[in-house]
């Protein structure tokens, strides 16, 4: 009796949940397809049916109490739910439009067949029980699926449908025996069964939302049951794919914006991807990623749909398992190594199931006042019920710097005006006042000489282990990873030899100063607390250690040494000077100076989803993201070896700085979506939600100068300085949304968010509206007669409008003080957030949908306008040189994004292809203040980044070359022999106008896979800040016009670049199942060889046009988005091997 | 039993969720204001509430002292060298000579300052980090902190309030000595916005400084140390106005051994001039021979000790002011005053030779009274200019590199009728010639951003 009550309650709950789920996940397009199960639905509780995985006997099924009241639901859906509850196999002809017919029915019975009968009353359909006593057949009485067929046949097909990447069972997949028009739907274990089949050869088609359709021929022999398993491959950009929005998970067709979703396992299996940044690079139309440098652990700058902000960060928001994590370099960041570790790359890519990129305000309006730059949604792996499975990946790679470096030409001569002789002539130094008369030229490049180069061979080792398993009620997934990387930078061999000869200690760290170590663990546990309540817990732990030397922009790394006149041997080699190369110039100090950033991260998250009062689906989540940093920079006593100057201060006896930081972000989110109301043509689903985020940062730093010999801390320093800081920031917001649905093909969400942030104060609560529509054109009889359009398997058009914001950096609204010096900021009590509004228009077209091939095209046009820019305005100097942040001006970004995905199955070869194109335009429309317009004398002699109305933000400007003349007839165009324009002229933008990325993958015989990625971009104007001296600046044998170009040194460094990069190639071989099953059981194994950054074709005269960081990059600052290679290490070339068990 | 367990568990979960929903709603309804009243603070910045307390005010006061010392003497990081008062004063006058270093192009702002070729578009104001905004920041900070103390830390020792008046007055005196007539004295209004002003004449600025000093005296609580400093500054303001007798009367009670030091420790303090700029030696033909005279008072080494106190006021200056006043009264005491300094100041420990970067190597002071090496002054000429030149030379040596020389040269032009070419460096400067600037123009940025400001009243005043 107790059991009976239990089951009844569970059934009731499941039915209610099922009903609730139906309009959310969407029912099929009148073709009898069943909506997705737990993996796709917003509610996702269908898979938790109490009958799942149970084999109730027939008698018990009949006696189960079934009581529910359902309105406006498709017949196919209702009978499927009934069959699921009872556990009976169900056969029906899903293509029959009768099954899409909406019915309303109230059932109160303990007999499944009686329930069926009640349900089908008046529909023209009947339900009968097969002679196996279990299978229920629903059909029209005279339709092809005859009852006799079922009764006369004892044959059946059963099997499992699984995800190719994860091995996860797919629930809700539709398995159709084409000839017989029989369809079965997979259960939570991914299992299906088709019965009532005669012997013979049949074609079976398997369809699943978001996955590629597969067809296979099955031979039914004499056995009563034939086994057939299917493995489906994820296919992005399908309309039925489930994607994330601020209000929860929805099917793509309901979402009015473009969302790029990356199935991570699929990507990392076939491509050499180690970090989330690498994952995103080249895979998201509209996203531009640029590496800060090629050093281990240096972050990547990510900009989505252009740059909107001048003074605030342009970094996107990051959401991990529903909770916002830190993505800014705050007070607690440690950046002794030049660039703080990227928060995004602290997330272990092996632990991620999917990454979604929500690109603009129209998509992220409901994320509120910090989301204007887009949102990156990371979902970690969930446990797969069933037997415990493990996966492992071991990767080993080697890094080198490809190619030769440009030669440096050193001119030598005299300065008659000063009497200096045997000097290195300089173009930028004293050029006007003291011309140099060149008498000789030496040619050298320190980085091309094996004996002197500061670049060696790097290495990287990565190992990852994953465990997953559990029962239906409790599932778990655990991923553990470790990376160890050694950068390319090294102490030159020449210096090592010299130091050894003088009995100097040269430790391993000094020889190879750039290193990165990272260990991480991620786990997720899902508990079905009850039939309506699920609890998810996720934990992420990371520990990173990044070592570097202060070589980031120094001559040693930039390759401009040696500064003094050198002697060369007959082979052009540099002759020893006796003092060592770097030691002789002070560079050895750079190697001895230890710089380390350590970071420990702990992320805890909990999410409860439940059905509240049988009407409201509730999702409550909360968690924290804690980062503790510990950075240190130390120069030991004695580092100023051989009397080398240590920055000219008296305390050359060593120094030490260290910082302890702690940043914690608390999140809590509540989202409630109600039951849709209305009628069958028009229904409205209400959604409300709130979130509260509190970010706290603390840091404590101490610096000391004058250390005792051998000191390892600053305790014994001669002089100490202490500093503490404590920052808090809160955001509180709420939203309401009404999702309108018309006739199952038009969706119109209308929503509004009100958001407050502590950077604005409690009196300001900006509102962020959102509106859009999504219309599925295909499968509409009205369009069937239109040529081409009527033939398209799938077509959707969409438009969205939304507003999102960006809060000020911090305390710009308030008067602030600095205990180290008084007034810090004047404040502006009228400050508001920047507001970005965006119109997005797009369409997804499936041109071909065939088991042998498919072609999907996704095109989007977006126009984003950011108003009320947060700009620092200079206040009069008589107030003390302060700036005040004000809201003024606007920036527009327009982008066209096209994504084409296709595959072709020609038997043993399957070709997957992806092509994404982005054309982006950025323009500063209005500014209103003389911001960044004051060009200094230094600016007039260089390449400057300016914010000028009518041009891109942070556009590059320099003076134009007007004319030149060799006035002193020495055959060399000097700097003072070049006439430049008085004013600056625009030369370009620091972002590409056009990007094209392509992914190609060939799979041969399901075992050999070749994947390759190419990327092309055009329009980045690079400021090649490396002050090398090219041949044109010193060689009189060159034509004067070439020399003139160089003599106008600005032009020698600024260049608009086009580049095509061969990003990666991976060849993977998967061990045949027959072999792996013997060796590894259910696991499979693959081995891969890969290479990255394989080649670069570019007109760039520097080394790498796509690497660079300066000014605020990558996390933000006050000077806009500058970008320059400026001595940064280019991307190295990596080759390696990988073994994966999965 | 099973059902009870299930029901119990179900009820707990449901109850938990209901509680969370209610809690959230309550939070939203009544807690928004409190939740949003915290603000993110950049590194090193104090929450305003922390400053608005006794401890906060003391901390800010301490920080301001450090800022002043850095502005006055220099640091080894960040700011451009012209941001430092002693360098700007030294370059514009004859104390320092600009030397091109390896990383600078000639013709930059330091060169302009040294060559006295200055327009309001000169690069003396760079990104809010020039001398003009730094002095003004100190000025508006002093007023702001006074307001904070009055409202939030009223029990703070009134000497601190007095010192803040003194600091503000000192800032104005510095502006009047260094910049052209037409100096805006804009202010940041406490707990409000800001107020811009037009440019004030030099006399108006000095007058305002004197008012501030009188106000400061009212809070000094008869603190002798502080009162002496106020007297010195008042005298300096009187000198600027040409009111020599008032100046003389004001400093009479300041003992010769008096010294006003700023003491603090910092890793970034550095006295830059001597490290990277050459000491002037007959610069522009009429500069003083600071080097070749071998005078021990100008032989300050490169002082980089970050913990030594910075002397910004001494009794020596009081005696020098008296000497100047007596000279104008034709009182022979003027020469005695000068010589008495030479004879009594034989040791820096007892005679406070001022130094912007702490105590230097002035061990040779005894040579000043040694007839063999540094004979006592014996001025027989009755020509006032000759005598004035002697007084001002003694001032230049005693107050070497303490940002007094520019003010003195300007006084010679404004108050004593000298032509600028008689006292400032003139003639050939590298490949060009010295200009005629006797002060620094207020940066052009003031005109751009302050609608009330129309520029200097007179570049040659």
The sequence of SSEs of chain B as H and E is HHHHEHHHEEEEHHHEHEEHHHHHEEH
Tally of extended strands of chain A? 55
Physical arrangement of strands within the biggest beta sheet of chain B: 1-7
The percent range for strand residues of chain B is 5-15%
Structural class of chain B: mainly alpha
Structural class of chain A: mainly beta
Helix content of chain A: 10-25%
Q: Radius of gyration of chain A over alpha carbons? A: 33 Å
Main sheet specs of chain B: 2 strands, antiparallel
Query: How far is it from the N-terminal to the C-terminal residue of chain B, by CA?
Result: 101 Å
Assembly state here? heterodimer
Which stretches of chain B are poorly predicted, pLDDT < 50 over at least 5 residues? 26-44, 102-106
Written account of the structure:
The complex is a heterodimer of chains A (1142) and B (461). Chain A is mainly beta and 1142 residues long. In chain A, the strands form 12 sheets. Chain A has a 22-stranded antiparallel barrel. Chain A has a 5-stranded mixed β-sheet with strand order 16-21-22-19-20. In chain A, strands 6, 9, 12 and 13 form a 4-stranded mixed β-sheet that branches. In chain A, helix 3 runs antiparallel to helix 4. The longest helix of chain A is centred in the first third of the chain and has 24 residues. Chain A starts with a helix and ends with a strand. The N terminus of chain A is likely disordered. With 461 residues, chain B is mainly alpha-helical. Chain B has a two-stranded antiparallel sheet with strand order 1-7. A two-stranded antiparallel sheet of chain B has the order 2-5. In chain B, a hairpin with a 2-residue loop joins strand 9 and strand 10. In chain B, helix 7 crosses helix 15. The longest helix of chain B has 34 residues. Classes of the chains: A mainly beta (1142), B mainly alpha (461). At the A-B interface, helix 1, strand 31, strand 33, strand 35 and strand 36 of A face helix 1, helix 3, helix 6, strand 2 and strand 3 of B.
């Amino acid at each position: 009796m107790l059991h009976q009550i239990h089951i009844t309650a569970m059934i009731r709950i499941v039915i209610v949940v099922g009903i609730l789920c139906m309009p959310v996940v969407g029912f099929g397009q009148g073709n009898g397809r069943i909506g997705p199960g737990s993996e796709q639905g917003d509610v996702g509780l269908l898979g938790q049916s109490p009958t799942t995985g149970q084999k109730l006997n027939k008698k018990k099924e009949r006696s189960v109490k079934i009581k529910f009241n359902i309105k406006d639901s498709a017949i196919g859906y209702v009978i499927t739910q009934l069959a699921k509850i009872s556990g009976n196999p169900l056969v029906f002809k899903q293509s029959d439009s009768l099954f899409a017919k909406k019915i309303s029915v109230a059932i109160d019975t303990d007999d499944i067949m009686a329930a069926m009968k009640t349900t089908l009353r008046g529909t023209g359909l009947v339900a009968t029980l097969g002679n196996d006593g279990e299978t229920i057949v629903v059909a029209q009485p005279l339709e092809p699926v005859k009852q006799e067929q079922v009764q006369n046949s004892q044959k059946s097909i059963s099997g499992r449908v699984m995800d190719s990447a994860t091995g996860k069972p797919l629930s809700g997949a539709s398995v159709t025996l084409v000839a017989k028009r029989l369809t079965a739907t997979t259960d939570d274990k991914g299992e299906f069964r088709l019965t009532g089949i005669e012997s013979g050869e049949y074609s079976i088609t398997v369809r699943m939302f978001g996955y590629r359709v597969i067809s296979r021929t099955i031979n039914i022999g004499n056995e009563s049951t034939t086994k057939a398993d299917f493995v489906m491959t994820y296919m992005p950009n399908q309309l039925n794919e489930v994607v994330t929005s601020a209000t929860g998970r929805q099917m793509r067709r309901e979402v009015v914006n473009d969302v790029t979703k990356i199935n991570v396992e699929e990507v990392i299996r076939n491509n050499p991807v180690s970090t989330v940044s690498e994952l995103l690079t080249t895979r998201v139309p509209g996203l531009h990623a640029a590496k800060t440098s090629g050093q281990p652990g240096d972050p990547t700058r990510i900009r989505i749909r252009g740059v909107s902000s001048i003074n605030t960060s342009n970094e996107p928001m990051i959401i991990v398992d529903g909770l916002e994590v830190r993505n800014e370099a705050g007070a607690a960041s440690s950046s002794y190594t030049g660039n703080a570790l990227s928060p995004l790359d602290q997330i272990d890519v092996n632990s991620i199931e999917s990454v979604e990129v929500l690109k603009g305000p129209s998509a992220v309006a409901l994320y509120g006042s910090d989301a204007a730059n887009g949102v990156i949604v990371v979902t970690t792996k969930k446990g797969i019920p069933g037997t415990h499975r493990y996966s492992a990946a071991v990767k080993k790679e080697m890094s080198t710097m490809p190619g030769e470096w440009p030669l440096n030409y050193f001119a030598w001569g005299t300065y008659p005006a000063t009497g200096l002789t045997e000097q290195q002539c300089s173009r930028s130094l004293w050029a006007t006042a003291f011309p140099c008369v060149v008498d000789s030229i030496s040619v050298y490049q320190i980085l091309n000489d094996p004996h002197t180069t500061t670049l060696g061979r790097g290495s990287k080792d990565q190992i990852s282990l994953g465990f997953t398993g559990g029962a239906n009620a409790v599932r778990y997934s655990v991923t553990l990873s470790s990376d160890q990387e050694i950068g390319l930078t090294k102490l030159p061999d020449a210096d090592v030899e010299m130091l050894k000869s003088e009995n100097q200690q040269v430790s391993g760290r000094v020889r190879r100063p750039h290193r990165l170590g990272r260990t991480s663990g991620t786990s997720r546990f899902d508990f079905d607390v009850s039939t309506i309540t699920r609890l998810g817990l996720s934990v992420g732990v990371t520990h990173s250690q990044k070592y570097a030397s202060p070589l980031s922009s120094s001559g040693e790394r930039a390759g401009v040494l040696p500064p003094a006149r050198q002697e060369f041997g007959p082979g052009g080699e540099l002759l020893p000077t006796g003092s060592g190369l770097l030691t002789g110039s002070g560079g050895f100090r750079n190697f001895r100076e230890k710089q380390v950033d350590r970071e420990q991260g702990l992320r805890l998250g909990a999410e409860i989803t439940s059905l509240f009062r049988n009407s409201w689906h509730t999702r409550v989540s909360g968690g924290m993201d804690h980062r503790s940093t510990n950075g240190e920079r130390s120069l030991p006593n004695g580092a100023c070896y051989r009397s080398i100057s240590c920055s000219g201060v008296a305390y050359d006896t060593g120094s030490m700085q260290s910082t302890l930081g702690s940043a914690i972000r608390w999140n809590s989110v509540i989202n409630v979506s109600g039951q849709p109301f209305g009628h069958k043509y028009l229904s409205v689903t209400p959604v409300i939600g709130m979130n509260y985020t509190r970010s706290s940062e603390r840091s404590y730093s101490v610096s000391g100068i004058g250390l005792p010999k051998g000191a390892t801390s600053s305790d014994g320093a001669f002089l100490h300085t202490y500093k503490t800081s404590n920052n808090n920031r809160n955001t509180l917001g709420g939203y309401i949304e009404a999702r309108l649905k018309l006739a199952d093909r038009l969706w119109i969400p209308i929503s509004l968010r009100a958001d407050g942030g502590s950077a604005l104060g409690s009196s300001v609560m900006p509102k962020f509206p959102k509106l859009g529509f999504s219309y599925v054109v295909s499968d509409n009889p009205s369009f069937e007669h239109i040529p081409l359009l009527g033939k398209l398997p799938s077509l959707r058009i969409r438009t969205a409008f939304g507003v999102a914001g960006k809060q000020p950096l911090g305390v710009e609204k308030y008067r602030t003080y600095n205990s180290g010096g008084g007034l810090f900021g004047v404040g502006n009590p009228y400050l508001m957030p920047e507001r970005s509004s965006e119109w997005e228009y797009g369409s997804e077209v499936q041109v071909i949908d065939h088991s042998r091939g498919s072609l999907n095209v996704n095109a989007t046009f977006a126009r984003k306008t950011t108003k009320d820019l947060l700009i620092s305005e200079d206040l009069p100097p008589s107030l003390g040189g302060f700036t005040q942040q004000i809201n003024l001006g606007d920036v527009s970004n327009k982008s066209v994004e096209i994504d084409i995905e296709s595959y072709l199955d020609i038997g043993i070869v399957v070709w997957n292809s992806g092509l994404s194109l982005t054309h982006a335009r950025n323009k500063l429309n209005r500014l209103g203040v003389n911001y960044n317009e004051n060009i200094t004398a230094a600016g007039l002699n260089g390449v400057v980044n300016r914010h000028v109305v009518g041009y891109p933000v942070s556009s590059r400007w320099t003076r134009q070359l007007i004319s030149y003349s060799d006035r002193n007839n020495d055959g060399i165009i000097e700097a003072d022999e070049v006439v430049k324009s008085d004013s600056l002229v625009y030369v370009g933008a620091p972002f590409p106008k056009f990007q094209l990325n392509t992914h190609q993958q060939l799979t041969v015989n399901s075992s050999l896979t070749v994947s390759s990625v190419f990327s092309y971009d055009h329009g980045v104007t690079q400021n090649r800040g490396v002050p090398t001296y090219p041949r044109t600046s010193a060689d009189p044998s060159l034509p004067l016009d070439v020399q003139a170009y160089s003599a106008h040194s600005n032009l020698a460094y600024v260049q608009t670049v086009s580049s095509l990069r061969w990003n990666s190639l991976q060849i993977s071989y998967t061990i045949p199942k027959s072999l792996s099953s013997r060796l590894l059981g259910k696991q499979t194994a693959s081995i891969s060889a890969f290479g990255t950054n394989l080649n670069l074709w570019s007109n760039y005269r520097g080394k790498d046009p796509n690497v660079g960081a300066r000014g605020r990059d990558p996390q933000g600052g006050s000077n806009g988005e500058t970008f320059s290679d400026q001595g940064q290490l280019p991307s190295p070339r990596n080759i390696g091997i990988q073994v994966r068990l999965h | 039993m099973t059902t009870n367990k299930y029901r119990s568990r179900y009820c707990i979960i449901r109850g938990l969720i209901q509680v969370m929903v209610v809690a959230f709603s309550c939070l939203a309804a009544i807690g928004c204001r409190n939740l949003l009243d915290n603000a993110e603070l950049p590194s090193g910045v104090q929450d305003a509430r922390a400053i608005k307390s006794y401890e906060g005010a003391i901390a800010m006061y301490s920080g301001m002292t450090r800022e002043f010392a850095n502005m006055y003497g220099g640091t080894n990081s960040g700011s451009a060298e012209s941001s430092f008062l002693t360098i700007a004063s030294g370059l514009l006058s004859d104390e320092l000579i600009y030397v091109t270093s390896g990383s600078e192009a000639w013709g930059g702002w330091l060169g302009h300052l040294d060559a006295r070729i200055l327009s309001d578009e000169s690069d003396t104001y760079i990104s809010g980090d020039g001398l003009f905004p730094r002095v003004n920041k100190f000025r508006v900070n002093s007023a702001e902190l006074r307001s904070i103390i009055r409202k939030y830390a009223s029990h703070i020792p009134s000497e601190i309030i007095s010192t803040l008046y003194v600091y503000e007055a000192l800032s104005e005196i510095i502006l009047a000595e260094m910049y052209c007539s037409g100096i805006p004295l804009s202010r940041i209004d406490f707990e409000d916005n800001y107020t811009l002003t037009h440019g004030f004449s030099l006399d108006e600025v000095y007058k305002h400084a004197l008012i501030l000093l009188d106000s400061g005296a009212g809070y000094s609580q008869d603190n002798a140390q502080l009162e002496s400093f106020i007297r010195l500054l008042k005298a300096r303001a009187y000198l600027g106005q040409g009111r020599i007798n008032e100046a003389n009367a004001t400093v009479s009670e300041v003992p010769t051994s008096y010294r006003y030091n700023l003491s603090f420790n910092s890793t970034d303090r550095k006295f830059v001039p001597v490290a990277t700029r050459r000491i002037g030696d007959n610069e522009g033909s009429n500069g003083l021979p600071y080097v070749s005279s071998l005078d021990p008072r100008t032989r300050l080494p490169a002082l980089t000790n970050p913990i030594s106190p910075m002397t910004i006021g001494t009794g020596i200056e009081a005696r020098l002011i008296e000497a100047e006043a007596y000279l104008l009264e034709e009182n022979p005491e003027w020469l005695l005053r000068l010589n008495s300094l030479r004879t009594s100041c034989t040791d820096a420990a007892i005679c406070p030779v001022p130094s912007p970067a702490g105590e230097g190597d002035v061990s040779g002071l005894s040579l000043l009274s040694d007839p063999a090496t540094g004979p006592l002054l014996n001025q027989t000429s009755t020509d006032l200019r000759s005598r004035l030149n002697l007084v001002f030379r003694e001032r230049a040596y005693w107050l070497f590199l303490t940002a007094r020389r520019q003010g003195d040269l300007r006084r010679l032009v404004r108050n004593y009728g000298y032509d600028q070419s008689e006292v400032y460096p003139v003639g050939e400067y590298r490949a060009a010639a010295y200009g005629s600037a006797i002060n620094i123009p207020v940066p052009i940025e003031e005109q751009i951003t302050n609608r009330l400001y129309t520029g200097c009243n007179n570049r040659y005043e």
